[in-house]
C-alpha cells in the first residue's frame, strides 16, 4: 500500500459471516464432544471406546478444518498469494491427517470387536470422500503450490479444483450425517423414536453440520467477496505465462 493510503478493508458483511461460521464450527465440536462424552462413554484409544475417536476426528478434520481451508482466500484477502496458498494447503493437510486418525480408529475398533468393514452406505461415501480429498490435495499442491506446472495447465485445472473443493466439502457433511444416523440406529434404535435426549442432541448436531455448510457455501459463492489479485500478483502471472508458454510480453 502507498504511504498515507487507508488500510484495505473487507467487503461489507464478510467478517460477520466468517465469524458466524467459526462460532458454528466450534459449537459443532463442542456438541460432538458432549454427545460422545455424555452418552457414549467418552474416548480412549486402546479400549472399547476407541470407536468414539472416529466421529470427533471426522467432524474436526473433514468438516471444520476443511471449511476453514476453503475460507482462507476470503479471509486473507490482502496477504501475499504465496502465503495464502501455503495456509490453504496446510489446513487441508492437517484435516487429512486428523481424518486418517479417525479412519484408523474405526478399522481398529471393528477388528477388535469382530465387526465387518465397508458394508454400509456411510462407509462407502466416507471412504470415497477421503480418497478423493487426498487426491484433490495432491493435485492442488502439484499444480499451484510447487513450481513446474505451466500457466496453461494451471488455468485449465483451476475450475475443476474449485468445483471439487466445494463438492468434497458437501460430500464430507453428507457422510457425517449418514454416520450420525447409522450410529443412532445401532445404539438406540429401540428408543430413538421416543425423542430421547441422546437422539435430540445428535439431531441438533446434524442441523449444525448443515448450517455450517450453508454459511461456508454462502461465503464462497458471493461473487463480490472473492479475493481480488494484488497488482504485483498480476505482474508475476504475466511474467510466469511469458516464461512457461513462450509468449512475448507484448503478445
UniProtKB/TrEMBL annotation:
Keyword line: Cytoplasmic vesicle, Electron transport, Heme, Iron, Membrane, Metal-binding, Translocase, Transmembrane, Transmembrane helix, Transport
Q: Name one GO molecular function term.
A: metal ion binding
The record's annotation in InterPro entries points to:
CYB561/CYBRD1-like, Cyt_b561/ferric_Rdtase_TM
Top-level lineage group = Eukaryota
A Pfam match is Cytochrom_B561
Q: Which cofactor does it need?
A: heme b
Topology class, membrane:
Multi-pass membrane protein
Ranges annotated as spanning the membrane: 12-36, 56-76, 88-107, 127-149, 161-180, 200-220
- Subcellular location, in the record's words? Cytoplasmic vesicle, Secretory vesicle, Chromaffin granule membrane
Reactions it catalyzes: monodehydro-L-ascorbate radical(out) + L-ascorbate(in) = monodehydro-L-ascorbate radical(in) + L-ascorbate(out)
GO cellular component terms, semicolon-separated: chromaffin granule membrane; lysosomal membrane
Domain Cytochrome b561, chain residue ranges per copy: 20-221
Where it mainly occurs, coarsely classed, is membrane
Point out the signal peptide segment: none
Q: What does this protein do?
A: Transmembrane reductase that uses ascorbate as an electron donor in the cytoplasm and transfers electrons across membranes to reduce monodehydro-L-ascorbate radical in the lumen of secretory vesicles. It is therefore involved the regeneration and homeostasis within secretory vesicles of ascorbate which in turn provides reducing equivalents needed to support the activity of intravesicular enzymes.
Could you identify this protein by its name? Transmembrane ascorbate-dependent reductase CYB561
Taxonomic source organism: Dasyornis broadbenti
Gene this chain is encoded by: Cyb561
Amino acid at each position: 500500500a502507498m504511504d498515507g493510503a487507508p488500510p484495505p478493508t473487507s467487503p461489507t458483511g464478510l467478517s460477520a459471516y466468517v465469524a458466524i461460521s467459526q462460532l458454528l464450527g466450534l459449537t459443532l465440536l463442542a456438541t460432538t464432544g458432549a454427545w460422545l462424552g455424555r452418552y457414549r462413554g467418552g474416548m480412549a484409544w486402546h479400549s472399547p471406546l476407541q470407536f468414539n475417536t472416529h466421529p470427533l476426528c471426522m467432524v474436526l478434520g473433514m468438516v471444520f478444518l476443511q471449511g476453514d481451508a476453503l475460507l482462507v482466500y476470503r479471509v486473507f484477502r490482502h496477504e501475499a498469494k504465496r502465503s495464502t496458498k501455503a495456509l490453504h494447503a496446510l489446513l487441508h493437510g492437517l484435516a487429512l491427517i486428523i481424518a486418517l486418525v479417525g479412519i484408523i480408529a474405526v478399522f481398529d475398533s471393528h477388528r477388535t470387536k469382530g465387526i465387518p468393514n465397508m458394508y454400509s452406505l456411510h462407509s462407502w461415501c466416507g471412504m470415497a470422500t477421503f480418497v478423493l480429498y487426498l487426491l484433490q490435495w495432491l493435485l492442488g499442491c502439484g499444480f499451484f503450490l510447487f513450481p513446474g506446472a505451466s500457466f496453461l495447465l494451471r488455468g485449465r485445472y483451476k475450475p475443476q479444483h474449485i468445483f471439487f473443493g466445494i463438492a468434497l466439502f458437501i460430500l464430507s457433511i453428507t457422510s457425517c450425517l449418514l454416520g450420525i444416523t447409522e450410529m443412532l440406529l445401532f445404539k438406540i434404535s429401540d428408543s430413538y423414536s421416543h425423542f430421547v435426549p441422546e437422539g435430540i442432541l445428535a439431531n441438533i448436531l446434524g442441523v449444525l453440520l448443515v448450517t455450517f455448510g450453508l454459511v461456508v457455501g454462502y461465503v464462497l459463492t458471493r461473487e463480490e467477496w472473492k479475493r481480488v489479485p494484488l497488482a504485483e500478483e498480476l505482474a508475476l502471472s504475466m511474467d510466469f505465462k511469458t516464461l512457461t508458454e513462450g509468449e512475448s510480453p507484448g503478445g
